[in-house]
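ugh ok fine here u go
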Amino acid sequence: MGRHVAVALIIAVLASLSLSAEPLGVALTLTSANKCQGQSPEIRLTHVPAGTAAYKVQMTDEQVPSFRHWNETLPAAGPVIPAGASKAYYGPCPPSGKHTYRVRVAAVDSTGKVLAQGDYAAEADSR
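structure:
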């Protein structure tokens, strides 16, 4: 195989990879309605890629990373995950002081392939 053919082949393979140009933008606000056994917060998303069928959502407490407050796949119905959409949400409920909660969202297609992902850090304090 000639050198020019090999370079052309590499360029063609790289061009066929479908990675999102921008990370998924994730924004939310934790309020008292979202704490402890409250409802899941509204999550606003930007740069949602075409073909997104669902969102995989995880929330962890950065001070206690082994505890997942949220780990669920929700159907995509636009760039907003509505408040209260989750049935598997256990809201932040720090025993004392402030804790930082990392919310990770992945946009996935109908086969489960991740199209884009992003995260957001929010703080909540004890009751």
